[in-house]
Amino acid sequence: MAFPFPTTIFFFFFTLIISSFFSLHSAQPPPSSTLGFRCTNATTPSANCYSLIDYHLPNTTTLSAVQSLFDIKNLRNLLAANNLPTTTPHNRTFPAESILRIPFPCLCRNATGISNRRPIYTVVPDDGLFHIAAEVFSRLVTYPQIQLVNNITDANTILVGQRLWIPLPCSCDEVDGEQVVHYGHFVAAGSTVEGIAEQFNTTERTLLNLNGMADAKELQASSILDVPLKVCKSMVTSNSLDYPLLVPNGTSIYTANNCVRCRCDAMNNWMLECEPSGLALPRGQTCPSTLCEGTSFNLGNITSGSGCSRSRCVYTGYTDGRINTTISRDSTCPGNNGLSNV
Ligand SMILES: *[C@@H]1O[C@H](CO)[C@@H](O)[C@H](O)[C@H]1NC(C)=O
Ligand SMILES: *[C@@H]1O[C@H](CO)[C@@H](O)[C@H](O)[C@H]1NC(C)=O
Ligand SMILES: *[C@@H]1O[C@H](CO)[C@@H](O)[C@H](O)[C@H]1NC(C)=O
Ligand SMILES: *[C@@H]1O[C@H](CO)[C@@H](O)[C@H](O)[C@H]1NC(C)=O
Ligand SMILES: *[C@@H]1O[C@H](CO)[C@@H](O)[C@H](O)[C@H]1NC(C)=O
Ligand SMILES: *[C@@H]1O[C@H](CO)[C@@H](O)[C@H](O)[C@H]1NC(C)=O
Ligand SMILES: *[C@@H]1O[C@H](CO)[C@@H](O)[C@H](O)[C@H]1NC(C)=O
Ligand SMILES: *[C@@H]1O[C@H](CO)[C@@H](O)[C@H](O)[C@H]1NC(C)=O
Ligand SMILES: *[C@@H]1O[C@H](CO)[C@@H](O)[C@H](O)[C@H]1NC(C)=O
């Protein structure tokens, strides 16, 4: 089982050649072992949050292969992050070069954010760290980063069956005083910082600052840029197990032990819409009631009242065995889009 395998050596030298090529010809820094995105504003010394990253498919592949590579527990979480219908089959094929958004838990420590002990990749015969970083995970990480978090002293010595933690970059920082979801955006050839800022409704200055870039000209094609995604307003209370529930535009999330599905659509005035997930739970498990207390209103139900006022049953959080809801009124009258509790 002992390495080095010939391919490992090959990739190792290949990497050296590539890095010296870049340092000689394009003034790029050599592959860095600095981890993750900057994560300094988290309120606690180690913060956890939900994050997204673009996976640029190296080969034609199926959803279930991607799910398994990134250790995503349920296919529906991958579908929800990509706004794909819940009925999408696990063997749906996506062509090489397409992009899927990968949902994962982020952990911030020591001013950097990386995926929290996942995904775990198991070494197969003829693997090498450079190959795993570049051709399996499409450069979401560099091989020195894998080396660093797994305490590997010699990059040429990895063992078949060895389990490697792949440290995907992420952050839990607030941006300009707002909670956001940090999204590792794959920079397509020809894109500009200005264009990306416009696409995700942020500013060029915010992107440069977040990514430690002095100038927009530093943007490199195929790199991963930290993009803060604005999230929908929710009424989840701070004692709820899923607080803060951060759901960006165009994605959904399952919460409350999979009993509730919440969706964010900017078109709905940036208000989080939650409803019973309707999922079949494992045998012996049932969901607690999702009715708004004392009514026959279920989570997500809306009724129109007199004039332009509306009432809806909204999600406010969960703890073991209980889902909390409240009736919330809003107005469709022009110039009034605030929520108010009853
Ligand atoms: C996908 O899986 C379904 C059953 O789960 C099967 O009927 C179908 O033939 C598969 N499609 C492909 C392209 O493999
Ligand atoms: C935290 O980061 C500093 C500087 O990057 C480094 O010297 C130190 O070893 C790190 N501490 C831990 C616990 O990773
Ligand atoms: C993609 O294909 C290349 C070439 O066959 C292979 O080396 C690599 O491991 C594949 N990547 C994945 C994620 O399957
Ligand atoms: C690497 O070593 C450090 C310090 O000895 C330890 O805290 C950490 O858990 C180790 N990481 C892995 C993946 O074994
Ligand atoms: C982090 O917090 C500092 C001080 O509160 C603030 O100046 C800075 O803009 C924040 N960074 C981000 C990315 O929001
Ligand atoms: C973009 O962001 C600004 C400021 O945060 C906001 O006023 C505007 O409505 C947003 N645009 C869209 C289309 O959401
Ligand atoms: C749910 O509601 C109960 C009763 O009002 C309250 O005691 C509890 O703190 C709430 N839990 C959450 C997570 O909001
Ligand atoms: C929200 O997401 C949809 C696609 O899911 C996109 O078409 C729309 O432009 C986004 N809106 C904002 C304001 O980001
Ligand atoms: C209330 O919500 C439930 C669960 O989502 C749904 O099945 C039902 O059709 C809704 N009823 C009304 C009147 O909207």
Please characterize this protein's 3D structure.
By secondary structure, the protein is of the alpha+beta class. It has helices at 6-25, 63-69, 75-81, 129-136, 143-149, 193-199, 204-210; strands at 37-38, 47-56, 61-62, 93-94, 99-109, 112-115, 120-122, 163-165, 169-170, 180-186, 224-230, 251-255, 260-264, 273-276, 302-304, 309-319, 322-331, 339-341. The strands form five sheets. Strands 1, 2, 5, 6, 9, 10 and 11 form a seven-stranded mixed beta sheet that branches. The chain has a four-stranded antiparallel beta sheet with strand order 15-16-17-18, with no helix packed on it. The protein has a three-stranded antiparallel beta sheet with strand order 12-13-14. Helix 4 (129-136) crosses helix 5 and helix 6 (193-199) packs across helix 7. The relative contact order is 0.12. The model is unreliable at 1-31 and 336-342 (pLDDT under 50). The site of one 2-acetamido-2-deoxy-beta-D-glucopyranose (NAG) has 9 residues, from strand 16 and strand 17. InterPro entries: LysM, LysM_dom_sf.
